[in-house]
Amino acid sequence: MARRKRLETNHQRVPVPTLERMATYLRLLSDLEAAKVHTVSSLEIEEQTGINAAQFRKDLSYFGEFGKPGVGYRVSDLHQRIAQILKIHREQPILLVGAGNLGSALVGYPGLREQRFVIAAVFDNNYAKIGRMLWDHEILDVNRMKEVNRQIGARIGIIAVPAGAAQEVAEMLVDAGVRAILNFAPTILRVPPSVVVRNVSFLQELAVLSYYIEQEEEPLSSPTPAASSTL
Amino acid sequence: MARRKRLETNHQRVPVPTLERMATYLRLLSDLEAAKVHTVSSLEIEEQTGINAAQFRKDLSYFGEFGKPGVGYRVSDLHQRIAQILKIHREQPILLVGAGNLGSALVGYPGLREQRFVIAAVFDNNYAKIGRMLWDHEILDVNRMKEVNRQIGARIGIIAVPAGAAQEVAEMLVDAGVRAILNFAPTILRVPPSVVVRNVSFLQELAVLSYYIEQEEEPLSSPTPAASSTL
DNA sequence: TAGATTGTTAATCGATTAACAATC
DNA sequence: TAGATTGTTAATCGATTAACAATC
User: Fold this and answer.
1) Which residue's CA shows the smallest distance to C1' of C23?
2) pLDDT number for residue A190
3) Which chain B residues contact residue A194 at CB under 8 A?
4) Among A24, A123, B75, B168, which residue has the fewest nearby CB atoms (within 10 Å)?
């Protein structure tokens, strides 16, 4: 029912799966660059990622022309242009809310910097934590978020708080000017249509994996009724 | 090209998006149960999750009949049956590889237990870490994985190691009997077709979000244009 | 019974892939 | 030039949603 207004002005609406793959290509291209490979073809991309070559070319076609027929793609060019498309060619500041275990792991994750994401401020609502350090960040009071972000101008926020607090935090982030939220809490967030949310839920991922596990009739020691018929 | 043999025998092949949503329904149902709600209709599910009511009913239809026309679904029944479908109705042991920040956050995450996932063993290859404790787990030598898993019989493994080590770890997990892998490393894993992999890549998620950020012509000092037209 | 809501079929929509003319 | 590989159109596939008869 809800006819979502897409926030991008672009040429053509880019499918989300395409964007996800763009990030994959970017990573591969970094590796190739590091390996001093100068040129790739779409078929080589397919071999290395498992993503169909036509799919790759189609994905790129949403953004322009990138290759030379008969030759392929220059690795460094393509890398740079994709980085530009995803807007990670320059530093992107991020607000992190939640200074627990997960928050700590995120701040300490070196991969972020590699892709030019910078955690610019860390917030928590726990007075026992506020004022203490998380790595090289002082943990700030969540209530200072809006004020602090006037300086930073971050457009991306990460929610790493328990499910019960997530909705409230989302609203604070939006109020502070954030337009995109990465949500680690297992809750469905309600935000204005102009704000994009993506959820990272490893519980959900585990549940999906769990489904695929063959139900090996129990390492059944003795009789153990162990209802069998899976049907 | 690669015609993937699906490992499930089931009636009909269940779409992955359906499985992902099943996990969402499960979570919602837990909340409803806690709130002492006894019955839900598909329309109420739509209101609370944003997932189309027809979609919900279609999703369930892959697994059988769950509701009463004119009435709806009994929350507790539905919860239990979905848990059974996803095989999280009983404890599911997991092997965790990588005792770094991320691994630590995972072991310390209380949500896992709530969904009956149990991290049964933690491995690392760093001799400085092996033998030390991560929460209540002794960190074990990766090379003991196969041996240790003979006791545990875990079918699910989590990879929380740097990208460079991920492929090797994946192979060790498979060798140890794991059939499903949750991969946090930013690499594409190559595994036998009988093994399922799901990737959790928050860098990728951030990259996707980043794309959607309006490119506000730099916070260029004074006038603050504050670009409005979302169109 | 009348009203509500299911389960399922059919229609729609969108994403993936194959095929090929254009071009280096 | 001949061979390779692109960018794009058309064909296929699969997932989402609307519609409705069945049924509580």
Assistant:
1) A69
2) 95
3) 230
4) B168
